[in-house]
Write a structure and sequence with these properties.
Elements lengths: L9 H13 L16 E6 L2 E7 L6 H9 L7 E4 L5 H9 L4 E4 L15 H19 L4 E3 L9 H9 L3 H9 L6 H18 L4 H10 L10 H21 L7 E5 L15 H15 L5 E7 L10 E8 L32 H7 L10 E6 L8 H6 L4 E4 L7 E2 L2 E2 L2 H4 L4 E7 H8 L9 H15 L1
Parallel strand pairs: 3-4, 4-5, 9-10, 10-13
Antiparallel strand pairs: 1-2, 1-3, 6-13, 7-8, 7-9, 11-12
């Protein structure tokens, strides 16, 4: 629609989530083998009901089968790599509707390794078995790689500069600049291209032919495929860089009450960042996003003791038509034609359409790109969620019809916001001696921060 910001299609959204799940921080050492780590998104009725990744012992498809069982029937599965025959036969048997995969190196790697020709031959045999299973199954095994809408990449690049995390870090730097973000983004692009895109086009064509995708090896199909893959990787890297690893910035509890209760212990920083990147990514579907996870003693092997509960984003009520409700924002003077009173908030959608119940005995956590408003804070607490991870720029503010006053007063829920731990430990330390040189003070402060990070 004219005047509307560009959005990610759901197909591309699920595809990007599968790539991101492949990057889930490992909770155990991954064995270096021919089997590539794989991310998987389980979708039912156009809603995500599971996010999984491979572990040292199990493939992503195997973990999904263990977790969902017969509930996989009529689901759509999005893989970050074409699944191996072991996974495919079980998934097909479960009655899935469609299996989509990223068209690069498959789960059983087809990359040529001169040092181990036996492995390459095994990979080719597995690829043939996969094609045979594909031909004889009712499930559609296919590529679903849509081109991004016009100006989508540019829109993501521009908006990441304005997100809470980048702005909060930039304000602490001398000169108030975002150069660190540009450097982080370039590193992410390089990393993701090496992982998800085969640099040698001849090798890529050879792998596609072995995977049964000969038709895509001819131009303009091949060049279009490569461009679509590059655009998605660029978008993913840009979003990932918006929650950067910079200095000692991370998610730290901003509450005055400290407790050793397991429900209030913070996540490792790399996992908190990963989940917040998911939140940032889904925000480009529309507006704002919430993602819920729970920690349990027995759940998803690929993500350790974490499993996905639900997600949501700002939207009008299900079934409503585009013109049913106002679309004016807070700049509109007439309050009667503002959209705020009609929008279902991300937190409300996630709680309504969650795929599992929130168990009171387990540590549930929520990741929100912006501070929860006064309308949603009571819902979060009432649902029994134990932790909130959030950028807190709007805390204590009132914007048009939306108020963010209750978040700061919320009790009984641990609130983790992006902060620089460097300053926290520096001010807790006793004042340095006047006889200490500036270099000695800086060195001691740096040592203290690194030791407590």
């Amino acid at each position: 629609m004219t005047g509307q910001t560009p959005r990610l299609s759901k197909v591309n959204l699920f595809t990007l989530f599968s790539l991101l799940m492949e990057l889930f921080p490992p909770v155990e050492q991954q064995n270096k083998s021919q089997v590539k780590k794989t991310g998987l998104v389980v979708v039912k009725n156009i809603k995500m009901v599971g996010l999984h990744c491979s572990s040292a012992d199990l493939h992503a498809g195997q973990i999904a089968l263990i977790k969902h069982g017969s509930r996989l029937k009529n689901c759509d599965l999005y893989f970050s790599r074409k699944p191996c025959s072991t996974c495919l036969k079980m998934i097909v048997n479960a009655g899935v509707n469609r299996i989509s995969y990223w068209p690069a190196d498959p789960e059983i790697s087809l990359q040529n390794e001169a040092s181990n020709p036996t492995s390459t031959e095994d990979a080719k045999l597995d690829a043939k078995a996969v094609e045979r299973l594909k031909s004889n199954s009712r499930a559609r095994v296919c590529l679903l790689l849509q081109p991004l809408v016009c100006d989508m990449v540019q829109f993501v690049e521009e908006t990441t500069y304005k997100c809470d995390f980048i702005q909060k870090i930039a304000k602490t730097l001398s000169g108030y600049n975002t150069d660190f973000y540009t450097e982080c983004r370039q590193e992410k692009i390089k990393e993701y291209e090496s992982l998800f895109l085969i640099s040698n086009e001849g090798m890529h064509k050879q792998i596609l032919m072995t995977m049964g995708l000969e038709n895509l090896c001819e131009n303009p199909y091949f060049s279009n495929l490569r461009q679509n893959m590059k655009d998605l990787i660029l978008l993913l890297a840009t979003v990932a860089a918006s929650v950067p690893t910079f200095g000692h910035f991370g998610f730290y509890c901003n509450g005055s009450q400290q407790t050793n209760d397991m429900h209030h212990q913070s996540l490792p920083q790399e996992i908190a960042r990963h989940c917040m990147i998911q939140a940032r990514l889904l925000a480009y579907r529309t507006g704002e996003f919430l993602c819920e996870w729970e920690r349990s003693q027995s759940c998803d092997h690929g993500t350790g003791t974490m499993y996905f509960v639900g997600c949501g984003y700002n939207a009008f009520p299900v079934g409503s038509e585009y013109a049913d409700f106002p679309h004016m924002d807070d700049k509109q003077k007439d309050r009667e034609i503002r959209k705020f009173r009609y929008i279902i908030h991300a937190e409300q959608n996630a709680l309504t359409f969650r795929c599992q119940e929130i168990k009171p005995e387990e540590r549930s956590m929520i990741f929100v790109t912006k501070c929860p408003c006064d309308e949603c804070v009571p819902l979060i607490k009432g649902a029994g969620i134990k932790q909130i991870y959030v950028g807190d720029v709007d805390v204590g503010k009132k914007k048009a019809d939306i108020s963010y006053m209750k978040f700061r007063e919320l009790e009984g829920v641990s609130k983790f916001t992006v902060n620089d731990k460097t300053y926290r430990f520096f001010f807790l330390k006793k004042s340095p001696s006047k006889t200490q040189s500036l270099d000695e003070q800086q060195h001691q402060s740096k040592k203290l921060c690194l030791g407590n990070h």
